[in-house]
Please model this.
Amino acid sequence: MSHTNESFHIAVLLKQTFDTEEKIAIHEGKIQDEDVKWVVNPYDEYAIEAAIQWKEQHGGHITVYTAGPDRAGEALRTALAMGADEAVHIELEDQELQAVDEWGIAQCLYHVLKDRQVDLLLAGNFSIDQGSSQTAIRLSTLLQWPHAGAITKLERVDETTAAIERDAEGDTEYVNVSLPALFTCQQGLNEPRYPSLAGIMKAKKKPVTTVPASELLALLDNTQKTQRELLELPPPRMSGQMLQGSAEEQVQQLIQALRSSSNVFEA
Amino acid sequence: MGRHIAVIAESRGTELRQSTFEALQAAVQLAEFSDSVSVLLIGTNLEARQEKLLKTGLQALYVVEDEASTPYEPDYALQTVKQWYDNVKPDVIIMGHTAIGKDLAPMLAASIDAGQISDVIALSPSQKGVLFKRPIYAGKAFESKSFAEASPWIITIRPNNFTPLQELPASMHCGSAEPVVVKLTPPKPSLRSVVTRVVERISGSIDLSEAKIVVSGGRGVKSKEGFKPLEELAEVLQGAVGASRGACDSGYCDYALQIGQTGKVVTPEIYFACGISGAIQHLAGMSQSRTIIAINTDPEAPIFQIADYGIVGDLFEIVPLLTAELRKALA
Model:
């Protein structure tokens, strides 16, 4: 089997998240999200960049997918401006968003992707908001595809095989994976590009398909298997003690303080 | 009949990882009267590990002696665990939110159509059932979740947050009865993904997310060589070295060391922030550390607002001095 350039299909999963410099506030039991700066989840940017680099080197057609509210369309536009070809927006109403977990989102994505031709599926290693590292791997399992997580290098071996390097708590693993497969992208994989002005102009004309999540969720018995019951902020840290004196004196004070407050030194 | 709560053990080399005993702690906290706790152990040369696990008083231990189980390969690991699941049908499965746990848990969850709550730091009973507390936005907030169904539940727990279990409470002990040790047959190897090579990190170095002590450097470290004194301090304290995004972006160290909202989240006993100003993105990754020590030349640096102990000074003077004094004190 051989692929012409256009027949190799790359799918990228992305999520719109708060910018990392945003503070979190809770209002009436919900995360305050007005006037927040939204970005493409930083790990998903590595996935978009990896897709674009693959296309530049080997050809292919890139479709980006998101499941999120109306505003998440901006994240898709960013990906299109970077160089993706088309986008699919599984649009969730606010209420739906509150009542769907990783299981439900993976099910929605599965129903959209199962009948499409996809040769390479890319996603971020995790999202910096929920951070549960579930959705992409759940999806590849539902699709019965192999996957490799936290990759730091991606190379094409032939039409049906990719070679990756992955970070496993400091060890580096080299894995050959048969396609179609999912790869979740880790820091160090690449340097995501900024959309160019020309890219932003072109993106406006690229196709975006909207799929109402309600249609997909209607196929399921339930929308979630886990639910949020409570939301809280971490207790504020007590302000500490600024040590005084010469460098030597400060170091002595610190060692004294650590000895009395921690059992680490008895080990 | 109570519920069956199972822990999937994880090893590094020939040793059980601490996350296994932390998962057992979570299992005991979750267990109610008449619930039972078991462990699934996969690997080779398992006798010593088996014995160590049985010492906790477990009622049942499932063992898959299998050379093909290392290095970890997702497809194969899922087949192994799925086979065990189909045989044993536990109601609750707990593992560490480690590199393997993060990978294996959602695969298993999808393949048995179960809900999963990831990266749990505490659990507590409530009227709505058991609440599982987990950080979101890398610790800028916490959510507590519950399961919508009675079973099966899959839970991954964050390292360093549950006290490792030494022994099951007497009421859960198998007592004088012999514990059940069930040997399971490994599955056929997968061909869809093949690990061709593993380059292990420097032996003896401690994983960041499990380290009791973390010594981190920021832009103030100024260069790759600037990390040397930090490494020496970490070595004396048997800790791990971390870094801020600034230090990684400047090329002073590998992204694998990055702590923050992007990067790793750590909760050690002691966190040394050296030459780190304390951007919100970094604080998200370390502000739950038990004791925070900040060393920075800028007295206005935001890191001092969350530090338990602050030293205004040059890290290149303070850190070597601290290392030398600690070396003496610990000798």
Notes: Chain A has a mean pLDDT of 93.
